[in-house]
Amino acid sequence: MRIIEAQDYKDMSRKAANIISAQMILKPESVIGLATGSTPIGVYDQLTEGYKKGDLDFSKIHTVNLDEYKGIDAENKQSYHYFMNQHLFSRVNIELQNTFVPDGMNENQDEECQRYEKLIAGLGGVDLQLLGLGHNGHIGFNEPAEVFVKQTHCVSLSEKTIQANQRFFESKKQVPKQAYTMGIGTIMSARKILIIISGEDKAEAVKKSFGEEISPHVPASILQLHHDVTVIADKAALSKLDI
Ligand code: GLP
């Protein structure tokens, strides 16, 4: 596990975008796993800049997103689908048919989860997976649990996650209670993983994830076992970790 200290959010975003850019330049037909939340917005801005400068070409890139709220359609402004269109897909030359997000409107959980797993396998797996980190150590929407769930599944969101995500909705009542997410095994199958973290409010989660024992109660701690994981975190987020 490589831990790279960034000065601040902007520096973290630039460093992460550089790694994604290198992946895209070395393999223009890469499959990139994408994340939502506020943390990756700066990375998507940097990638857009790279495209505008003519340094990056998304025409052969495929993307698979980590997760999506259940019961929310792609046109809904709170959906992760909408988020991706807004922050990246509509700003670069990616083919929309090459971008994939779990279908939050599929009521049939088993069908949707199997479909998404097959889809990822059909693309040849993920070359580089971008992740953020939840305050309770979640990755994607893999919440703290008794066991690590391997494949794409439907989760009931924890109270902490609902509270944290409330800021994107008009009221807490509107925050969906369930979501589809890649499983821990799906994430760990990526050939490379890049996790980005910013802010002092994440320092405890960083310490538990990367400085303590591996436990399904802290889902991100499993990343300690991945053979190619890069953590890019700013000073504030790293403030409780001994490195
Ligand atoms: C959400 C997403 C995660 C994300 C996390 C942190 O719950 N499902 O993929 O990493 O929140 O979000 P933020 O970056 O806004 O702190």
Highlighted features:
single chain; 243 residues; alpha/beta; seven-stranded parallel sheet; three-stranded antiparallel sheet; 7 helices; binds 2-amino-2-deoxy-6-O-phosphono-alpha-D-glucopyranose
Word description of this protein:
- Helix 1 (9-26) packs across helix 2.
- Strand 2 (31-34), helix 2 (41-52) and strand 3 (62-65) form a beta-alpha-beta unit.
- The chain has a seven-stranded parallel β-sheet, with helices on one face. A three-stranded antiparallel β-sheet has the order 4-8-7, covered by helices on one side.
- Helix content is 30%, strand content 17%.
- The chain has 243 residues and is an alpha/beta fold.
- It binds 2-amino-2-deoxy-6-O-phosphono-alpha-D-glucopyranose.
- The site of 2-amino-2-deoxy-6-O-phosphono-alpha-D-glucopyranose has 14 residues, from helix 5.
- 2-amino-2-deoxy-6-O-phosphono-alpha-D-glucopyranose is lined by residues 35-39, 66-67, 132-134, 140-141, 161, 165.
